Each structure stands twice: as structure tokens, then as C-alpha cells.
Amino acid sequence: MIVGIGVDLVDVPRFVRSIDRTPGLVERLFAEGERGRAPRSLAARFAAKEALIKALGDSSGFRWHDMEVVTDDDGKPSFLLGGQVAETARARGVGAIHLSLSHDGDSAFAFVIAERAEQSGSAAR
Length: 125
Known about the structure:
The protein is an alpha+beta fold. The protein has four helices and five strands; from the N terminus they run E-H-H-H-E-E-H-E-E.
């Protein structure tokens, strides 16, 4: 069962202007493992974090570093959650988070589905 869905779109040139204008923004928004990527890739990761907040329905106490976007060996993105973000996901019964990222031209896009954990022993209705 779906707990929440989140979508976010980032204008890449605007995002680049923001990180150029504000020293330290990349370090504030992204965990160490996310840094050093191309600006459009960072923009997509920022969109992913915003989409996750929307899917979970609340951002109280969230820290940007507690939502790290990682990729597996095949390039599939996913989240590593920590702190209040992980606690909120657990409290809402989230067992899986599905993430899709895309960027084309001047846009970076993320789509997140938060799915409820399956409960063992429950019958299908």
C-alpha cells in the first residue's frame, strides 16, 4: 500500500546560480558521498530530497544529510536515511521507498513512492 507520493522539479540553471552565489550550500544540502557530482546531478538529488519530504508528509526536524541519495552498481538510485527522516518513515510504517531521477536540458526531476511495510500474517482483502 502506498503511504505517500512526492514529485519535484528543479530548474538546473537557477540551482547552479544558487550554489554559485551561496558558499557552503553544497555542503549544507548534500552528504559527503553526494558531493563532487555535476550540477545537474546535484539538482536531481535535491529534487529527490524535496520529493521524499512530500511523500513522507512532514519535514519537522529533518536534516538534509539524513536523506542521502546513493546509486547501486547498475546506477539505480535509492536513499540512505538517518536521524529524524528515518524515524518519520518508521513511524508512518514505510518499508520501501522507490526513487526515480531524471534530468534533461535545464530540468532535473525526481519521483518518490513511499510504500507501507508488509505485515507478516495479515490476510489479503
